[in-house]
Amino acid sequence: MIKSHKPLIIILILLLALFAAGCLNENDNTQDEKTNETVTEHTKVEKINIEGSTTVFPLAQAAAEIYMENHPEKSINVISGGSTTGIKALIEGEVDIAMASRKMKYSEKKAAEANGIDPVEHVIAWDGLTVVVNPENPVDQLTYEQIKGIYDGSISNWAEVGGEDQKIIIQNRDPSSGTYGYFKDEILGDVKFRPDLVSRDSNGAIVQAVTQEDAAIGYIGFAYLDDSVKAVDIDSGNGMVEPTSENILSGKYPLARPLHFYTDGQPTGLAADFIGFILSEEGTIIINDVGYFPA
């Protein structure tokens, strides 16, 4: 009797079909992986980190938010913490841009050089450092010498500068702040701050403290000035000048100062594009909206 090979043929056909289906699935999976890789590659986000001055922070943050709305494939992370902190982070290669409300010190430049960092300064806007008191305080004018006396301890009562008989409560910025450094260099020089003042870590904290204490005095960036505190006119030796936009822009106001970005060498890529954005016409609008003045 001749045996039939039909069942064997059917089995072979089924095995071949299963093998072919497996190859097709493998090809499909490989194609899917390639597609995913392409999508990932095309959606890769370019990112920079910015850290430093609490004075520069609101400008950098506002500009970063608008820039990222226009460029969703870009990421700009902005952190405040003081000029000294930001500059240190740049020196250690931890950030792409340092924000500072003062110039880099010689010692910081030497430390950067020793670490292979070439700090390049970019003036992005102007600010007017503003001395503020509580709105209930009748004092609305102070000379440089009076401010110096208040902060070095030689003047301790508001009555000594035309105010009421109250002990002056001095609010100061913390030493890591560029605002602290600028104020000390401009007002006190080599003289030390009095030991009983209260240090605050931000402009906002100064505003809050002066708002809550009738006898308090402090100093802040112009952008933080609001109705909860009163700005005093300043006389550096050429007459009293009110801290207004016009006086700051004209250079008449004695505590006008530049605000800085620092980069390692000339910026490239996203860092360069972002700095260019701040200095553009659109950036000028943001600078004005925040309360500072175009460079």
What spatial form do the alpha-carbon principal axes imply?
globular
Q: Number of helical segments?
A: 10
Indicate the low-confidence ranges by residue numbers. 26-41
CATH architecture annotation name of the largest domain: 3-Layer(aba) Sandwich
Span from first to last CA? 105 Å
What's the number of extended β-strand segments? 14
Please name the CATH topology of the largest domain. Answer: D-Maltodextrin-Binding Protein, domain 2
* Integer tally of domains: 2
What is the beta-strand fraction? 15-25%
For this structure, what is the CATH class of the largest domain?
Alpha Beta
Order of helices and strands: HEHEHEHEEEHEHEHEEEEHEHHE
CATH superfamily of the largest domain: Periplasmic binding protein-like II
Largest sheet: 6 strands, mixed
Radius of gyration: 30 Å
Mean model confidence by pLDDT: 89
| Fraction of residues in helix | 40-55%
Secondary structure category: alpha/beta
Sequence of strands across the biggest β-sheet: 2-1-3-13-4-14
